[in-house]
């Protein structure tokens, strides 16, 4: 122990005499002794002293620790003895000598070590491998450069100690041992973009402080990442060889036969702490002694000066650690039990100044009083801990770590765990099929729906390596990569998957499953198969970033290009918002004016919302009821932000929404010129739409990766091809000119030679030139002067055409080899990324991007857990939405499972927007858009009164929102309730899991047919897209009711034409959010004698249904059912509150003359 730190006993005593700075004190479990932890040598060494005034005997053993995980391998020896707890035993009763027994165990341990040395690690050739180094390791480990230099220079042996598997990514890893440096390295397969097999990431590097198993020696050439451009690396077959070597090593160790040891009576001393550990395993000291008496399996002897035995009592599934007791002399004696390098974070609270001497048997004890000193130190330590607790409370508040946040993160993780279990599809068959495996899932329909979804998302082909399945057997798991799929072409027969695995441990698990398939059912019951949980992993990553207790945070941030680099202040602010938003500093001063005038006139609240968003210190909430211009506000926020930051080339904004429709709505408004102004060109916005083109409108696909990778690349290739052809023509022309010049030079030589002999020049021309050449070069090649001028032109241009041709060919080859060049170029230059809340992190290139602003549209529809994915990627946030409209979607089965687990379903049904509305309103971070421009005042008056407390007002122009109506409907008001309680056939019918109402179906179609007969709905106007034909909509709370109404509409030629033209739309409440129609017919569907309203009994859905109408709202309902529902006494709370809205609608309509009783024989009376 002392040799490790370069000291001996005398130097320790000398250091103690200079002063001991106490950092901790621990009282004894019994008696008046205890331990003192302190610093010596000016705080460089940490030392632990122990005082036990009641010396035990030489036969006593002390229980140090109880651990749940048994040691691996086979025991060295089995000890047979009779163990007793120390209570009520005399020393004379003990017959075993601890010292002698320990010597025997050490001798057996030496024999085992000699046996282990006979293992000859096999040599495995790994070829050439590339090693990347994480940022964290490069910054923190001062000695890593020397180790890596020797590794890259092949100056050191490398042994494989252990095969690893990354807990998050499932990537294969290795623990390597370098004997020359006594260093252990942990490396994992790299998962960077554009890296192939043979690339590894070094994540940790540590000194070896314990014995390791040398599985094999690795023969490899290691290259740094900077030298790996054109290096050919070896495949992963050598990893399978390492896995085989691991199995061979453990099989070889089994050859050791444990030795038998016998002893007499032994006393076991159990401390209070050890008793607590035993209680965690539901054991008492007496029960432990009984198990040890049956047999004690010894595995290891550790320690140098203080020997510790690692053992497992027979019949128990836990390991214990034992050490012989050492007697002390007197009240002033201390025993040194540990020294190590000091932790710089330790803070001393006392300093002991005394005269220390080394303990020698027979020497007279000193006059010190150790128990009294321990009591004084305990008092001081208590005072220090009290102060530290107060400081810690303040620090946790400052960094955002609160019990509320920890509890909330834990509940979110539990929801993810329960949701992940819903992805299980089971295994019917798994067997070998050539080099891979054949897999038949059990839940065929679930797998088929999953594959169909992937096909729609990836119309150009599915990259199956992005969607690995997970096979679990107990605690072991393997990630399966789909190679091919059978049985999906015609939809007939079962789905069969051809799968493989890239992990050696995964392959070993699959082989084990295949081998046990014929052994029948016992192990097969533990085999589980899960679909990919990509979305849940993204949520887990967000939770890891917010969770201060996550131990692997530092390692994750060290992976280059894989993790966010959001500053701590921003993360702390987000933690505070999620846990205790009321602690945010209130904003009292008014916002500055807008940097530039708005593009379109804004109301006072709209302008306030824009100013709050662009000048707010952290997060801003903008609540926009129906028709208040939320999209207009978002566009103006973008316009002002990009104008403010136009000189910052790195400024980026992330725009997200829960649905593709909402994202595309904002993007379409942004790229469409308004009033002669193109915002994209004016502000230098480079939008990038994340998502598959299958779900994006055709006119917006130019902002997607697929378009850049196909259409734009093809256009550029055409342009480059034209340039290439042009340069080729120039090259052919130049070659023709050179041919003429060469012939001319030869003829000139002959002419001058003839002239020197005969006194006159010969005329050997003229030369015939291609007509195209004469047009391009107006030069007379028949005279020497013209040829000289052509030669000078060629000499001046040099080899430019040839160089251009060569460069263009290389450019085309580059485009063919790098098909994602344009997408990477788009991502690098995009300053406005548009995506869904989860889709913003699905592309690897975007996972490490941090945005200056994150704007969330329809934030009231997204649960907080999913909203974390975009929020952790921004430094400031703007949430736009309305929690009084549709809530987040949640699966009913998941809600039931949450209730069974004791969790509140609101964790997934309540949006973060709704949670923050009240505290943000108090702190000045909330703006309510209070003017609407959609609904006629007759409609908006009810919506404002029932859902917004009368805060919603009208723009003046909405009074003109009127439309013609059939004669059987009164001209006023614009909100009409058609009461069916007088009709005998009004009752609902159950159909599947929903309800239908035939009477209300017929009424809705009858009314639509009457509107279609009006002049405004003639066929020629319906065909003209630019004509102002009023739009119609029918909303029902049940999908079955919607289907029945749609079937009836298709049977009517005129209504079917309106339906096909998009003028008429029929759907559920959820499908209508974000839409508006001139006429809305809402059919309540429910009509019964129990007063049950079903889906209608939801205030948020009613708000959406009623607020879609611009000019006229017709509600078809049974007044008797509504009245019975109001009188029910078996509902309370929110349900009772929302139940009253339909009754309030009847009262409101009656007060304004809009309540109509549907008469008997209404078809006849209304047709006239």
Count of runs of 4 or more consecutive helical residues: 38
Largest sheet: 7 strands, parallel
Task: Give the helix/strand class.
Answer: alpha/beta
Task: Provide the β-strand percentage band.
Answer: 15-25%
What is the name of the CATH superfamily of one domain? P-loop containing nucleotide triphosphate hydrolases
CATH class of one domain: Alpha Beta
Mean pLDDT: 79
Overall shape: it is: globular
Would you identify the regions where 5 or more consecutive residues have pLDDT less than 50?
Answer: 551-562
Tell me what the CATH architecture of one domain is: 3-Layer(aba) Sandwich
Q: Which sequence of strands runs across the widest sheet?
A: 26-27-25-28-29-24-30
Radius of gyration: 41 Å
What is the number of strand segments?
A: 40
Query: Under CATH, the topology of one domain is which?
Result: Rossmann fold
The helicity comes to 25-40%
Calculate the terminal CA-CA distance, rounded to whole Å: 106 Å
InterPro entries: AAA+_ATPase, DNA2/NAM7-like, DNA2/NAM7-like_C, DNA2/NAM7_AAA_11, Helicase_ATP-bd, P-loop_NTPase, SF1_C_Upf1
Keywords: Coiled coil
Protein name: AAA family ATPase
GO molecular function: helicase activity
């Amino acid at each position: 122990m002392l040799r490790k730190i370069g000291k001996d006993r005398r130097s320790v005593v000398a250091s103690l005499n200079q002063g001991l700075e106490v950092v901790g004190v621990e009282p004894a479990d019994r008696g008046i002794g205890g331990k003192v932890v302190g610093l010596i040598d000016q705080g460089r060494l940490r030392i632990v002293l122990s005082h036990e005034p009641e010396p035990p005997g030489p036969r006593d053993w002390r229980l140090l620790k109880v651990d749940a995980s048994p040691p691996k391998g086979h025991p060295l020896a089995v000890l047979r003895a009779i163990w007793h707890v120390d209570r009520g035993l005399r020393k004379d009763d003990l017959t075993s000598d601890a010292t002698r027994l320990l010597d025997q165990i050490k001798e057996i341990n030496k024999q085992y070590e000699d046996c282990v040395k006979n293992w000859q690690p096999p040599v495995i050739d790994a070829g050439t491998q590339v090693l990347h180094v994480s940022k964290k390791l490069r910054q923190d480990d001062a000695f890593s450069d020397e180790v890596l230099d020797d590794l890259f220079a092949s100056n050191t042996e490398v042994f494989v100690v252990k095969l690893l598997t990354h807990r998050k990514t499932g990537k294969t890893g290795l623990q390597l041992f370098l004997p020359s440096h006594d260093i252990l390295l942990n490396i994992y397969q790299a998962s960077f973009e554009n890296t192939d097999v043979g690339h590894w990431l070094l994540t940790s590097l540590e000194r070896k402080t314990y014995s390791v198993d040398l599985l094999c020696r690795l023969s490899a050439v290691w290259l740094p990442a900077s030298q790996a451009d054109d290096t050919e690396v070896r495949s992963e077959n050598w990893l399978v060889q390492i896995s085989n070597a691991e199995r061979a090593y453990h099989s070889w160790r089994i050859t050791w036969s444990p030795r038998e040891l016998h002893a007499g009576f032994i006393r076991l001393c159990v401390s209070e702490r050890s008793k607590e550990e035993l209680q965690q395993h539901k054991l008492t000291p007496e029960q432990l002694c009984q198990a040890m008496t049956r047999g004690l399996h010894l595995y290891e002897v550790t320690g140098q000066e203080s020997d510790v035995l690692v053992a497992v009592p027979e019949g128990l599934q836990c390991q214990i650690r034992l050490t012989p007791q050492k007697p002390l002399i007197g009240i002033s004696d201390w025993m040194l039990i540990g020294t190590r390098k000091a932790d710089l974070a330790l803070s001393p609270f006392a300093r002991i100044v005394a005269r220390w001497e080394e303990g020698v048997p027979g020497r007279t004890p000193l006059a010190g009083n150790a128990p009294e000193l321990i009591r004084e130190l305990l008092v001081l330590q208590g005072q220090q801990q009290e102060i530290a607790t107060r400081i810690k409370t303040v620090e946790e508040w400052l960094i955002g770590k609160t019990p509320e946040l920890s509890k909330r993160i834990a509940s979110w993780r539990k929801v993810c765990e329960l949701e992940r279990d819903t992805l299980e599809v089971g295994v019917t068959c798994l067997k070998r099929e050539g080099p891979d495996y054949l897999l038949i899932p059990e839940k065929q329909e679930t797998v088929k729906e999953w594959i169909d979804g992937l096909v729609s998302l990836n119309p150009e082909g599915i990259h199956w390596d992005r969607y690995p399945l997970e096979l679990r057997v107990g605690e072991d798991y393997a990630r399966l990569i789909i190679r091919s799929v059978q049985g999906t072409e015609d939809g007939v027969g079962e789905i069969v998957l051809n799968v493989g695995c890239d992990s050696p441990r995964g392959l070993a698990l699959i082989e084990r499953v295949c081998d046990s398939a014929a052994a029948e059912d016992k192990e097969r019951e533990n085999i589980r198969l899960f679909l990919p949980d990509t979305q849940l992993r993204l949520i887990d990553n967000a939770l890891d970033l917010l969770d201060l207790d996550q131990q692997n945070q530092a390692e994750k941030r060290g992976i280059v290009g894989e993790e966010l680099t959001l500053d701590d202040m921003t993360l702390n602010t987000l933690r505070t918002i999620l846990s205790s938003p009321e602690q945010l500093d209130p904003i009292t001063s008014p916002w500055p004016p807008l940097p530039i005038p708005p593009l379109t006139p804004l109301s006072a609240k709209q302008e306030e919302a824009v100013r709050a968003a662009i000048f707010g210190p952290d997060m801003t909430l903008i609540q926009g009821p129906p028709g208040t211009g939320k999209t207009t506000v978002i566009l103006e926020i973008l316009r002002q932000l990009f104008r403010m930051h136009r000189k910052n080339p790195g400024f980026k904004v992330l725009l997200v929404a829960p649905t593709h429709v909402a994202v595309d709505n904002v993007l379409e408004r942004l790229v469409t010129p308004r009033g002669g102004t193109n915002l994209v060109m004016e502000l230098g916005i480079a939008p990038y739409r994340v998502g598959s083109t299958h779900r994006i409108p055709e006119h917006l696909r130019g902002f997607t990766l697929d378009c850049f990778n196909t259409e734009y690349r093809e256009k550029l290739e055409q342009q480059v091809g034209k340039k290439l052809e042009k340069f080729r023509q120039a090259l052919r022309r130049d070659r023709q000119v050179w041919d003429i010049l060469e012939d001319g030079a030869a003829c000139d030589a002959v002419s001058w030679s003839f002239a020197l002999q005969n006194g006159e020049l010969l005329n050997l021309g003229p030369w015939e030139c291609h007509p195209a050449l004469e047009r391009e070069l107006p030069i007379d090649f028949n005279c020497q002067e013209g040829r000289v001028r052509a030669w000078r032109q060629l000499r001046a241009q040099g080899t430019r055409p040839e160089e251009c041709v060569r460069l263009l060919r290389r450019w085309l080859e580059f485009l063919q080899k790098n098909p994602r060049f344009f997408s990477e170029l788009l991502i690098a230059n995009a300053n406005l990324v548009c995506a869904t809340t989860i889709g913003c992190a699905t592309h690897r290139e975007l996972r490490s991007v941090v945005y200056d602003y994150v704007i969330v549209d329809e934030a009231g529809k997204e649960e907080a857990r999913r909203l974390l994915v975009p929020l952790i990627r921004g430094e400031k946030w703007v949430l736009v939405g309305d929690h009084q409209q549709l809530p987040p979607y949640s699966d009913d089965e998941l809600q039931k499972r949450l209730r069974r687990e004791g969790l509140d379903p609101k964790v997934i049904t309540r949006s973060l927007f709704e949670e923050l509305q009240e505290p943000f309103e108090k702190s000045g971070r909330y703006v309510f858009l209070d003017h609407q421009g959609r609904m006629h005042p007759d409609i908006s008056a009810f919506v404002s009164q029932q859902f917004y407390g009368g805060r919603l007002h009208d723009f003046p122009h909405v009074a003109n929102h009127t439309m013609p109506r059939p004669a059987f409907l009164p001209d006023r008001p614009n909100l009409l309730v058609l009461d069916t309680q007088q009709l005998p056939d009004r009752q609902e019918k159950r159909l599947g899991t929903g309800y239908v109402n035939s009477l209300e179906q017929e009424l809705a179609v009858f009314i639509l047919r009457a509107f279609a007969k009006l002049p405004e709905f003639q066929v020629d106007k319906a065909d003209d897209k630019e004509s102002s034909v009023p739009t119609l909509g029918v909303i029902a709370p049940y999908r079955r009711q919607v289907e029945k109404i749609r079937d009836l509409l298709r049977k009517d030629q005129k209504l079917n034409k309106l339906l096909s033209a998009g003028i008429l739309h029929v759907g559920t409440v959820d499908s209508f959010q974000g839409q508006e129609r001139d006429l809305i017919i809402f059919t309540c569907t429910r009509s019964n004698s129990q007063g049950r309203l079903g889906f209608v009994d939801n205030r948020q859905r009613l708000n959406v249904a009623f607020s879609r109408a611009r000019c006229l709202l017709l509600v078809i309902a049974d007044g008797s059912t509504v009245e019975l529902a109001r009188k029910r006494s078996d509902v309370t709370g929110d349900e009772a509150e929302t139940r009253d809205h339909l009754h309030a609608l009847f009262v409101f309509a009656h007060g304004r003359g809009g309540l109509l009783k549907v008469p008997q024989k209404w078809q006849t009376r209304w047709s006239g």
